[in-house]
Design goal:
Length: about 100
Amino acid sequence: MAELPSIRPALEELLSNRHTIEARGLYTTLARYAHRRVERTARRRYNDVLSAPDREELVAEVLYQLMSGALARFQGHSTGELLAFVRTISDRHVNHAAH
C-alpha cells in the first residue's frame, strides 16, 4: 500500500503564512468541516438547546481555537488525523455549550 502524503507541509504553511493560496485552501477545508460537524452534532443531540446563532458562534469558536494554538500542537501527519482532531474540538465545544 502506498503511503499517503503528509499534511504537515500544508499545515506549516497555514500557520506561518496564512495568506497563500495553499493556506487559504486548507483553512477553507477545515472551516467547512468544522461547520458541518458542529451543525450535525448540535442538530442530532441538542436541537432543542442550541439555536442556529448558537451553532454559528460555536463554529467561530472552533476556528478561533484551531488558529490560536490548537493546530500548532497537532502532532499527526495525515488528513484523516487532522480531521479527527477538528472533529474532537468541534464535539467538545458543542457538548460544553449544551450543558
